Give the backbone structure.
Amino acid sequence: MTWNALSYPFESQLNTIKMGQVMENFTSIAAGDSGAPRVATAALAERCVTQAKLSTTTASGSTSSSAFTISYTLVGGTYSWWTASLAGATSSEFDTGGFGGGNSAAGTISVVNISGGSRTLHVDERYVQSSPPYDIGDGEIPLFCFLLMNQNGSIAAIQIAQDPPWAYHGPTNIAAQRWINGKPYRKYKRVGFGGELLSELLRGSDQVKISKYLRGELQIVEQEEEITQSLKNRDMSVVPHPFQNVSPGQTVILMDPFWDDKLTSALLKIQQSVHAREVRNIFMENMLVIDNNGTKMRTPPGVLPVKCKWKQNGKG
Amino acid sequence: MTWTNHTYEVGEVLASSKMTTFQDNYTALMQGHPGAPKIIEAAIATGAVKQNSLLTTTAATTLVVNSAGQSLALAGGTYSWWTASSSAQGTSFSNNDTAAGVLGLMNRSAIDIDFYLDERYIQASPPYNLGNGDVPLFVFIDLSDEGQTIRNVQIAPDPPWAYHGPTDISVHRADPVSGRLWGRKRDGSEVELTRAYKNSDMSLIPHPFLSVNSSRVCLLDPLSPVVQRLREVLDESGAHTARQLLQEQKKYLVFEESTFNTPRGVFPLGVRLK
């Protein structure tokens, strides 16, 4: 359906076709069709954007490490409400759990661990989403379950979320500015036609080129582009997984969501109806069998796709 | 264009003028013209408000924390999502019972520690004008070592007095034609959100570094090409990048005395590329 820019010339006949278009315009306006007027701030009643109107979801994770800095990549990036706690610290470790990590990126939590032993940072989130779903080559992924496995098969770190970590980290902004026929679009600034993203240049280390940009010596071209799956996954190689404390011998795995549809549906239902924290607990309480062998699912670089299934005496 | 209340009498011929104002009502409704019904909660689909539906922006701050304790005003006040990190161990929450939207910090060690804060926050009614034109970006810096080191810095499109202090500058009503905005006073009466009204609390919170003497704090010339470029960086890549760029590119910058309106006690500082 499209917006009908109707006009009514003097003495023209009002027929059923035109009245049908009048009616269609109500649907068109509500659907945000191209050409239809948009909702301006002044049109919104005060306090009408309540919790449920926000496109939010939850995420949950934890990371155990004996490193001096324990860092955690928030799934929601800078759009995340988060709470955190730290397990394992003793009363003599005054600074463990305090701020650290140097000038870490926005949307990242970094705390100090002075113990030399393993301490676990737990993080729960609710965040505002941009444009799910994500497809990295095998179909839309309903739930990303990333785990960092120790050599002995125990879980060192975990993150459960509907969005992958590269969605809201990295230089590519995937928040839609407008929708055309149900497809999201955004204006991107590039260095020259078809060149690198300006945001990529600014986050890079080429100080000479950045200096040229500051002086206005680079040609910056702004172009609207459809936010395709390819664009949504553009930063996958920059932030392939959420774990920043990976030690030698540890393996980053991603649960293959297509291998056991029923399990994936069950976990998604729990995430949606309760909180991602409950899904995290299912993994951490060893209610699932995590296979060592990889599947054929496409994954980010350095991430092994694995099969998971309910334990025979567990749920499911 | 205004909202037109239509009635339809039995036997009435629908005139083209009536149908034209009917068509105009779509726009009047969506722009919130006086008389048009407001869009209420029930009319908004569940989950319809996504990241880009919200009027948000980012801010970034570096604050040197010492054992005396520091208070830092979040640029977004109580509408801020934030994450933080520091250059070394020892920084933690402290400094007694600070105000809402303010972080209280302390560093237990004898050496100064840099505290890094990144925010995303929901905006109320930008822009702001201190008397020299609309300000694209507020860059508050605290220079030490005779101007060689940027000690504290906050980069944000909104000033610290916007969301701190007693004056509420959130929009209660807007005129879609003139663009004029009205807020509400505490007694419930309407007040136009003029540039002057939005700066009502400027003398109360002249800069974000609440424990730092104002005499050391400077505001970079908001209309300088450098600051305007930093605003573009913020829009494109976030305030975190803009702050990093300011500190990394400092060797290419010249700071110099300038004259433009600033909050009381805050030094106006010109900036240009070498």
Remarks:
- The longest strand of chain A covers residues 56-65.
